[in-house]
Structures are given as structure tokens and as C-alpha cells.
Amino acid sequence: MCxxxxxxxxxxxxxxxxxxxxxxxxxxxxxxxxLKPLDRVAYVRFxxxxxxxxDIEEFQLFVDDLNARQRQEAExxxxxxxxx
Length: 84
What we know:
Layout: H1 3-15, H2 24-35, H3 40-50, H4 56-78
Helix pairs in contact: 1-2, 2-3
């Protein structure tokens, strides 16, 4: 799925909430969730602005957490199911 498709999906989701004010925090999370599987660098760059990190340590914790989750997901994918 490309970025244009993600944007269209976000727009579709927002249009389903017609007449309802959408908090910017919700929109920001939608964008982050859309970027994450597409482009890790874009995801981190957007998060650095959106989350407004106050110092390098806060940013480093975010990146470390992202790396840990990515390793866990890769390990889970690599696990072979044992037959019953």
C-alpha cells in the first residue's frame, strides 16, 4: 500500500465521522499508524514533530521502543508453529 492509499483511507475514515469534530491528537495518531508500516524514517520524523520531544533522551526512548517492538514482531513472525 502506498502513501496515497493511506491518505485516502484516513480521509475515508474521517468522512464517516461527518459533522463530528475530530481531535487533532486522533488525526495525528491516524497519520502515525498509517506511516509506520510504509516508511519507518517518515514515521520517526513525523513522530518527532507530532510528539514534540523535549530532549534527545525522550526521542531515544521512543526509537529504542520502536526497535524493540520491531524485533518482537520479527521474532513472532519467525516462530514456527508446532503441530498438535
